[in-house]
Amino acid sequence: MNTDTAGYRLEGDGADIRSLPKVSLHDHLDGGLRPQTVIELADEIGFEVPAADAASLADWFAERSDSGELVEYLKTFDVTTAVMQTRAGLERVARESVLDLAADGVVYGELRWAPEQHQVRGLGLDEVVEAVQAGIDAGIDEAASQGRGIRIGQLVTAMRHADRALEIAELAVRHRDRGVVGFDIAGAEAGFLPSRHRTAFDYLASQFFPVTVHAGEADGLESIRSALLDGRALRLGHGVRIAEDVTVEREDDENTYVTLGLLSQWVRDRGIALETSPSSNLQTGAIAAWGDDLVDHPFDLLYQLGFNVTVNTDNRLQSGTSLSRELALLADAFGYDLDDLETFQLNAAEAAFLPVEEREELAELIEDGFDAA
């Protein structure tokens, strides 16, 4: 893989990954701030940040996020959420996030965030959702003026360690025709199974409202099982630890046998999308059972076995990344070509929380863009 000012280019055909149409399903709004924006918003509210300039602050986020543990990784969000407590701050972060995604070639994205974490300065739940949507709309309009078309949906998220899931689920449904396309639970995964929020998931199911659940990142198969059974999840946030239910046996250099457990076979056979985030999965230790390098990530195993894998950033700030970079890293690690990258985008388009007609239009847009590459 080579890099240049035009972006990341694939070995062989030299396709510029940044110019390809892409779909981002797992991108945290409070994990995608520009470092300079953090500094400026912090100055406006009198909040002290860990570094005085953008480059140093970016380094701080990268260092703190590379802990190998999700709980430590999540502590960096104390800084980002602190500067997202006003209407103006939320609008700015949302607008810039859309612009940054569009500049990276994303044509459809879902931004997830937890409204309950943005009420410190007195904003109501509906007010924070409206502020984020105003920023998203402004970003879409600005991107269009720059010749970049992009669509964005909100994924309203409840914190799994708190007791507000039903309230947040009702909030999401109230805004389903005003930008919110789905629901999620996030936060420290181990010890907080989705079953804790069964009432909220029952309500969402009664409203036919789409759900994705963080599962299989910092906890294993029981978390995934609960996401599917209790949460009725249509997608799994990360989901990489579903590979714990896959047995690989090598008898010799030429013969390898793979056996799927009931859970992994269900996820594969039903096409339940895995929202993998390679760099983040390394930082949080989600793939520690397989190794500590990207080539050890079970992504390729799952892909070769026919799982519905998608590629995402999780948190662009903490991982110092972009969707193009994540795709380039995977291509470098596993020798993927343009057809593979197109498959990942079509997988994501099919799993997007959009009506089927709009998903088909999105798939056509992706196919046309890759054909022209």
UniProtKB/TrEMBL annotation:
Domain annotation Adenosine deaminase: ranges: 21-367
Q: Which Pfam families match?
A: A_deaminase (PF00962)
Could you state one GO biological process linked to this protein?
Answer: inosine biosynthetic process
SUPFAM superfamilies, A to Z: Metallo-dependent hydrolases (SSF51556)
**Cofactor(s) in the UniProt record:** Zn(2+)
Write out the entry's keywords from A to Z.
Answer: Hydrolase, Metal-binding, Nucleotide metabolism, Zinc
* E.C. number(s) listed in UniProt: 3.5.4.4
One annotated Gene Ontology cellular component of this protein: cytosol
Q: Which domain of life is it from?
A: Bacteria
- One annotated GO molecular function: metal ion binding
Family of this protein: Belongs to the metallo-dependent hydrolases superfamily. Adenosine and AMP deaminases family.
Protein name (Swiss-Prot/TrEMBL): adenosine deaminase
Give the organism, scientific name. Answer: Agromyces archimandritae
